[in-house]
Design a protein that fits this description.
heterodimer; A: mainly beta; B: 11 strands
């Protein structure tokens, strides 16, 4: 179990550019989540996948954001035409299906990708 | 509308004493509650959880108490240690939905 990996750790981009982040979950976890965290706030839910199906999207996920999880393994989060308000830490987490292993119900988070839009 | 609220942004405690972190929620449909701990430049780490059918769960120095009638939960850390200094997030959800997090409480434990 190597944990949840996120790449890159840091990204600085100019306003208007597109960026893509990658998340590799724990291999036996069915669910994968994307959250965004800004200064002084807790993680805010963006979207989640169960295997390859995207089951829920937050209203925070504007049409400039798109997430994919092909083949139910790694996931990518793309932000098009970045804005300064997109600057944040983007966190990925994975978990087993609820009920399969209640002691592991908690999500396992990656270390995040810090995006700075200049 | 914030469904999970942590009204104390920070808490300072001396080493060896008890730390009590509080959390309130508004959604009576929540059936699972969790606490996460976060160090700078790292992702949140799962700490302890409690189901809505229980009122207490204990794991070593950490105990979570749930008061459903008051829609309130608390995390007790006894004894507090300097390594406990971190940001603590309360989170909750209904079965099958994504976790909703509070804004966090920064705990500082001084030696």
């Amino acid at each position: 179990d190597t944990g949840v990996s996120q790449d890159p750790r840091h990204k600085i981009t100019k306003r208007g550019q597109n960026v893509t982040f990658r998340c590799d979950p724990i291999s036996e976890h069915n669910r994968l989540y994307w959250y965004r965290q800004t200064l002084g706030q807790g993680p805010e839910f963006l979207t989640y996948f169960q295997n390859e199906a995207q089951l829920e999207k937050s209203r925070l996920l504007s049409d400039r954001f798109s997430a994919e999880r092909p083949k139910g393994s790694f996931s990518t989060l793309e932000i098009q035409r970045t804005e300064q308000g997109d600057s944040a830490m983007y966190l990925c987490a994975s978990s087993r299906l609820a009920g399969q292993a209640k002691s592991n119900y908690g999500y396992t988070f990656g270390s995040g990708t810090r995006l700075t839009v200049v | 509308d914030q469904q999970v609220k942590q009204n104390s942004p920070s808490l300072s405690v001396q080493e060896g004493r008890i730390s009590i972190l509080n959390c309130d929620y508004t959604n009576s449909m929540f059936d699972y509650f969790l606490w996460y701990k976060k160090y700078p430049a790292e992702g949140p780490t799962f700490l302890i959880s409690i189901s809505s059918i229980k009122d207490k769960n204990e794991d070593g120095r950490f105990t979570v108490f749930l008061n459903k009638s008051a829609k309130h939960l608390s995390l007790h850390i006894v004894p507090s240690q300097p390594g406990d200094s971190a940001v603590y997030f309360c989170a909750a959800n209904q079965a099958g939905t994504a976790l909703i997090f509070g804004k966090g409480t920064t705990l500082s434990v001084s030696s």
